[in-house]
Every structure is written in structure tokens, then in C-alpha cells.
Give the backbone structure.
Amino acid sequence: MTSTLTERPGGGGDAAPFLSVTELSVRFATEDGTVKAVDGLSFSLERGRTLGIVGESGSGKSVTSLAVLGLHDPRRTTVEGGIRLAGQELTGAGERTLERLRGNTMAMIFQDSLTALSPYYTVGRQIAEPYRRHTGASRREARSRAVEMLDKVGIPNPRLRVDDYPHQFSGGMRQRAMIAMALVCDPELLIADEPTTALDVTVQAQILDLLRDLQQETGSAIILITHDLGVVAGAADELLVMYAGRAVERGAVREVLRDPRHPYTWGLLASMPRLDSAVDTPLTPIPGAPPSLLAPPPGCPFHPRCGFTEEVSGERCRTERPTLPPGRGAACHLTEGQRGRLRGAPR
Ligand code: SF4
């Protein structure tokens, strides 16, 4: 498979991508200084495809999704660069435009359904409200749409359960209800931020299967944000690995997992349990902690944690920022030969 983040599924390629993010930069003003949460991020995504964005907490993946949805507070956040969705520029768009697009053309599934759903309203009402707002449907029509959506996401007895409150649902059912709420207006772009983190493994697989089935039905584009490479392995087509607010590796999921090229991706893979290793095989965490984004390290942002700097010449890693080439690639100074020799070597 040779697809890249910029290819169209059918291999065409001359039309503009459905979602195109170009040199995105997101900065927060804090009392301690400016946090560069996202720095020069570019990617694109087509309808019917899923992009997995992977990285540790603070890598900028959730900040990116909030920027696409236009949910940052403009009083303390600066968003620069281009975000084009279906030909429309979203950076700098007015709140009314974004409000019209959110929940309609683009929607989000949050990690914690108990926080995202209001405890004071029935599940059905919370699914029906955005539908009424965006389509002008009557109460009766919106309620019947809520029942239809609950049925679609696999809630048994939807006609009865539509009047339940969130606390009457199990964790997996609440996550399904949140998916129903996000999909009620048939959005073309769905952003799922750690949608299965709070769920046990069986329910996690069911939710990912459900998202895939719904995508096949509707042809929506999905951004799947997670810290878990195991989640994207079966659910995404393309992968973007983020570190310290920047993309450090990208490519088709299968290619990145088969032939990872960045020492940070190697570290993520080494820290994951594998089905084909002995149960007592120790996991290897990445040493150190992600850098402060108030003062990111110069050169390669991963250099304080990387065990391979001397292969390059430590000085270059500490002073020269590696760039991510277009298409499949990694932002790292190691040569292809060095990577082949070093991958899997102890750090
Ligand atoms: Fe490690 Fe240097 Fe590559 Fe950064 S550029 S990942 S520090 S080898």
C-alpha cells in the first residue's frame, strides 16, 4: 500500500482535498509566557478516509482538533495557518459560520461521555436538539430522528431508552449515544478524541467497528485522536505521529507500523504490549518526559529523550530542527541506513 496523507482514495489527486490543514500554529497566552501548542502542522484528509493522530498528552493532537472546529477562546489563543474544509477557509471565519458548520458539517466525539452529556436532559433530547437547530425539524420529527439514531448505533429498545437520562446508560451505551449525537446531522467530518479510552477492550472494539460501519454508510472523513497505536492499527488508513506540537512521522498506517522511521515512533511501539510476545516480556517506556511547550528544546524537540543523537552527531540534533518531508517520511536526521541498523536497538 503506497497511499499517503495527500492522496485521494481513488488515486485522482488534482482536486483540492476535502480537509486541508497547512502550517497550522496554535499559541496560548499564559501567565508564564506563550505556549506553542501546535507549530507548523500540515496534513490533508479525503472523504471516506480515517486519519489517526497519535502522541502523548501535550503533543498537540487535541489542540489541533479544537482548532479545526474553531473552539479555541480567541481572547487567549492565536490560531494561524490554513484550515480548509470542502473549499471553505475556517481560519479567521466568524463565529456564525463556525456555529453553522459545527454539529452539521463537522462534529466531535469526546473522550468522556459522562462529562460531555448533560445529566439534566434525557439522552433523546440531547440527540434531538442539534438536529432541530440545524434542520428546523419539529419536536416530533427530531424525537423520531433520535430514536432512529439510537437504533443505528445499536442501543436496544431505542423507543424506550430515548427517554432515559445518561446515568441510566452503561459507559459503552453512553459512548454510543454520544456517537448518535455527533452523527445526527450526517456530518462530513467527524473528529473522535480518544473515543474509547474509558472503555474496556471488548466495548472499545465494538465502538471502533461501529464508527467504521457508519463511515462506510455515510462516506464521512474521520480524524481519530489517540495515544494508543493499537487503536489506530485497525481503525485508521493514515497516521500522523505528533511530538511537542509538531508532526514527526506520517504515512499509511500499515507502512508506519511495519517500518517506523522516527525514534519516537519506535519508542511508542516498544512501550505497547504485543500479542506475539511472551506474557512476561517487559514493556520499555520512553525515558524522560515531553518537553515544556513554553520553551521547547532547540534543534530536534525529541533530542533530550532520544538515545540515537550520537549516531547523527549530537550537536546537529541539538541545534538543527529536522523537517518532515512531504508524503511518507519522518522528521529525523538519521539516514535510511542508520535507521535500518538502529531500529530495535537498545537506547
Ligand atoms: Fe533522535 Fe536526532 Fe532523529 Fe531527533 S533528529 S529523533 S534527536 S536522531
